[in-house]
């Protein structure tokens, strides 16, 4: 019911805002399609979206909780969504906004959200773990190829592989690469090639296409089949910008079928050039080694021990002769030193000997018994004494004895008067 008012009886602003709030919120919850043109995430539980009509210049602000926004998957600006909204008037400012209780991507966005959820689930299981990736062989004996019949992807892989390595051998399995049954047929082809022991690598190839066309290569069953394969698998799906789940599970991701050919076989020209370079380096190394050994052999042959078999004996003979000469010189030197010492000792002995004393005029007196006479008290007048001189002996008779201790001693009288020869 319309509110009555006049200049004399105006309605309070709060009443008008409350009435508008009541009229608007009577609309209740309603599903709306629109395009997200702005996303404002806040630190709390409420976030803001700006939603615009796809065909008209009409946009509104939508509040959404963290749980609803996260449940919608990876949402980007520009994505088309369908959401369940309810209009709401904020009483303090009279502004109109919408509250969202359910948010779902629409069209391609819906597919992207589903794929993202599938990726997260497989990633949590470890199917994308890089440490579990198998290495490609350097030169596979046989290459397994899964591709559409007479497709550009098949021709690109085969032609580029044989251009790089003409002797390459293929085991091709044709299957659908688009449509509801494509994923199943690709899985069967991978199973068949994985059971062949001579197949060393498997390439799954397809050209580019729309998102819907590449959906079979994001199938969960195909991802698990490739992850369980014992043979290394190379994914070559679409163009550089296309990234199906198969690219993340495969052991090697090639941006295009042509890039896959470059990754699975070496280039024969590069390998030939490398072999030639290695051959040259090996030849130079062998020549250098032989030259070194020849120089060492020549040096050994020029040694005296090899030119003269008796060189060792001559060398030892010279050493013995030198040692003998040193020994003789040492003996002579020692003998001279001992002779000098002996001469000094003899000189000392001669200097201290009684004979030298006798030569200076002294004599040695012996009694009749041959005992030395050292005192006048040991002889009597009339005794015969033997006198030893430097040049002979004398026999003398004692005529008188003069004791030097007596006061009247004639000790200093003429000595000739006291002896009678």
In short:
The protein has 421 residues and is of the alpha/beta class.
**Structural class by SSE content:** alpha/beta
Counted by DSSP, the helix tally is: 12
CATH architecture of the domain at 131-266: 3-Layer(aba) Sandwich
For this structure, what is the CATH homologous superfamily of the domain at 131-266? Response regulator
Low confidence ranges? 415-421
**Could you tell me the number of beta strands?**
14
CATH class of the domain at 131-266: Alpha Beta
Cross-sheet strand order for the largest sheet:
1-2-3-5-4
CATH topology of the domain at 131-266: Rossmann fold
Rounded to an integer in angstroms, the radius of gyration calculated over CA atoms is: 66 Å
**What is the element string, with H for helices and E for strands?**
HEEEHEEHEHEHEHEHEHHHHHEEEE
> Roughly what fraction of the amino acids lie in strands?
15-25%
What is the overall silhouette? elongated
Mean pLDDT value: 86
């Amino acid at each position: 019911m319309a509110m009555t008012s006049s200049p004399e009886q105006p309605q309070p602003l709060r009443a008008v805002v409350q009435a508008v709030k009541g009229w608007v919120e009577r609309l209740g919850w309603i599903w709306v399609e629109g395009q997200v043109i702005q996303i404002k995430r806040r630190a709390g539980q409420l976030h803001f979206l700006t939603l615009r009509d796809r065909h008209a210049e009409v946009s509104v602000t939508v509040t959404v909780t963290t749980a609803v926004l996260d449940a919608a998957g990876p949402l980007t600006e520009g994505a088309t969504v369908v959401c369940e909204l309810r209009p709401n008037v904020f009483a303090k400012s009279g502004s109109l906004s919408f509250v969202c209780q359910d948010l779902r991507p629409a069209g391609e966005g819906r597919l992207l959200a589903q794929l993202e959820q599938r990726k997260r689930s497989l990633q949590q299981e470890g199917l994308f773990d890089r440490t579990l990736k198998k290495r490609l062989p350097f030169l596979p004996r046989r290459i397994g190829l899964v591709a559409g019949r007479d497709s550009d992807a098949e021709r690109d892989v085969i032609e580029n592989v044989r251009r790089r390595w003409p002797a390459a051998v293929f085991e091709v399995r044709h299957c659908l690469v688009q449509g509801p049954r494509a994923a199943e047929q690709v899985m069967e082809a991978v199973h068949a090639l994985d059971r062949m022991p001579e197949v060393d690598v498997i390439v799954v190839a397809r050209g580019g296409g729309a998102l819907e066309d590449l959906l079979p290569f994001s199938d969960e069953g195909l991802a698990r089949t490739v992850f369980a394969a014992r043979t290394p698998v190379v994914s070559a799906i679409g163009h550089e910008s296309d990234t199906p789940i198969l690219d993340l599970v495969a052991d090697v991701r090639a941006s295009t079928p042509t890039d896959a050919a470059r990754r699975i076989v070496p280039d024969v020209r590069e390998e030939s050039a490398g072999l030639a370079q290695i051959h040259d380096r090996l030849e130079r190394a062998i020549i250098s080694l032989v030259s070194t050994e020849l120089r060492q052999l020549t040096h050994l042959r020029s040694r005296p021990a090899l030119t003269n078999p008796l060189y060792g004996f001559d060398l030892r003979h010279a050493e013995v002769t030198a040692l003998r000469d040193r020994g003789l010189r040492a003996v002579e030197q020692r003998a001279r030193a001992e002779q000098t010492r002996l001469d000094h000792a003899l000189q000392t002995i001669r200097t201290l000997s009684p004979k030298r004393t006798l030569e200076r005029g002294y004599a040695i007196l012996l009694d009749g018994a041959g005992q030395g006479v050292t005192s006048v008290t040991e002889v009597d007048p009339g005794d015969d004494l033997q006198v030893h001189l430097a040049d002979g002996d004398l026999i003398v008779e004692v005529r008188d004895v003069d004791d030097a201790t007596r006061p009247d001693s004639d000790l200093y009288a003429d000595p000739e008067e006291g002896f009678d020869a």
